[in-house]
Design a protein that fits this description.
about 180 residues, 8 helices
Length: about 180
């Protein structure tokens, strides 16, 4: 149960970027629930550490999510590129729901790589495992996506983030990742 509580929020946000449900209250919740059934069924076959478990769960959820069509982004939709303010009014700090929608707006390969690194918290090797590609390709896709995301979020968002790994804001995580690349 503790594993579920640790992994579920990140997994739900990741799946939301795959199925176009940044709020995680529709298709993302349905896909994630089905993925957890698969995870529970196959848990006895899993071997590895906590990070590998996250990657294994993400791969299972990704397989489920890719079976659904991803809606095309609507440039008139509020999730389209641009800046939004955090609901608490902190100027320049993007709303994390909007940031998840921006990640979902990225091209598929970049969105997957950024979400796995920034939301799920995987390193390049484990992100590559989930994506079925090489670590270099996963790093490259994440780098391109984070650059594109940083351009959309603007300098105000970059300045609002503290040095070091942020706790849970995807915009700050993307900015932090960009500094490390």
């Amino acid at each position: 149960m503790n594993l579920y509580r640790t992994v579920q929020p990140r997994l739900l946000r990741y799946v939301g970027t795959l199925v176009g449900d940044a709020e995680g209250d529709g298709d993302a919740a349905e896909v994630t629930a089905a993925a957890w059934q698969d995870i529970a069924r196959d848990l006895g076959a899993f071997t590895g550490d906590a990070m590998s478990f996250r990657a294994w769960c993400a791969r299972t959820a990704r397989t489920r999510a890719l079976a659904r069509p991803r809606p095309a982004p609507d440039p008139r939709h509020p999730a389209a590129p641009g800046r939004a303010r955090h609901p608490d009014g902190d100027p320049g700090r993007p709303d994390s729901g909007r940031t998840l929608a921006l990640i979902a707006w990225l091209p598929r390969a970049e969105a997957d790589a950024v979400a796995l690194r920034a939301i799920v918290g995987l390193d390049a090797e484990r992100a590559a495992y989930v994506l079925g590609t090489s670590p270099a390709a996963a790093r490259s896709a994440a780098h391109r996506g984070v650059r594109r995301l940083a351009d959309q979020l603007g300098e105000a968002a970059a300045g609002a983030c503290l040095t070091g790994e942020p706790a849970g804001d995807a915009a700050c995580t993307a900015t932090w990742m960009l500094r490390g690349m």
